């Protein structure tokens, strides 16, 4: 029995230097047992995502210095609360991983931290005044920001048999061969939109 215990202690001792090198952006010594933060501390993949988010957040904060009203910190606090709700999920790790990936992509798109295609102007339902302006971002997962009037929607790429399909909170865009099917708002009718010549 002692041999198994000694082997276990040796395994822990050998893994400590590796763990020390990879730390999340918060103090693992202060997290609650069983919390989502503890899961992040114990998982190398999630730790890496936390580090990546910390870097992207710092870049976004630099760009948001003169933002009025200042939204970034409040949004980040809200995101942390949302991530911590993953304890309710059946697959906690998958929930946390997706939470990090979408937040990183969101910040990269909102603060223009990655390569972008656009803006592309779409005229919808045959009316040039019914315009949706779209910027595509090379995030992981891929994102776009669509603007219509004074409203903005961040959308994430979805699996699609053909073309590129993006989904936001109440908006969607499915682009195929230069034509886009756009739904703007909860249960709104689908619009057929084509790229406007510039």
From TrEMBL:
Signal peptide (residue range): 1-20
Residue ranges occupied by any C-type lysozyme inhibitor domain in the UniProt entry: 122-190
Pfam families in the cross-refs: LprI, MliC
Parts forming coiled coils: none
The organism of origin for this protein: Shewanella mangrovisoli
Alphabetically ordered keywords of this record: Lipoprotein, Membrane, Palmitate, Signal
Database matches in InterPro entries: LprI-like_N, Lysozyme_Inhibitor_LprI, MliC, MliC_sf
Domain Lysozyme inhibitor LprI-like N-terminal: 36-107
Protein name as annotated: MliC family protein
PANTHER family: LIPOPROTEIN LPRI
UniProt superkingdom: Bacteria
């Amino acid at each position: 029995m002692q041999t198994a215990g000694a082997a276990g202690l040796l395994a822990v001792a050998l893994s400590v230097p590796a763990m020390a090198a990879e730390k999340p952006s918060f103090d693992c010594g202060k997290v609650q047992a069983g919390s989502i933060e503890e899961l992040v501390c114990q998982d190398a993949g999630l730790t890496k995502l936390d580090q990546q988010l910390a870097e992207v957040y710092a870049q976004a904060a630099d760009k948001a210095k003169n933002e009025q009203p200042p939204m970034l910190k409040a949004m980040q606090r809200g995101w942390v609360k949302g991530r911590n709700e993953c304890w309710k999920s059946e697959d906690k790790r998958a929930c946390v991983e997706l939470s990090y990936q979408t937040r990183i992509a969101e910040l990269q798109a909102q603060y223009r931290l990655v390569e972008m295609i656009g803006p592309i102007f779409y005229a919808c339902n045959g009316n040039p005044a019914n315009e949706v302006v779209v910027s595509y971002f090379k995030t992981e997962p891929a994102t776009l920001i669509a603007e219509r009037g004074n409203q903005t929607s961040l959308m994430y790429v979805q699996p699609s048999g053909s073309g590129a399909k993006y989904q936001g909170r109440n908006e969607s865009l499915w682009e195929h061969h230069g034509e886009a099917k756009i739904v703007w708002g909860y249960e709104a009718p689908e619009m057929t939109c084509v790229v406007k010549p510039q």
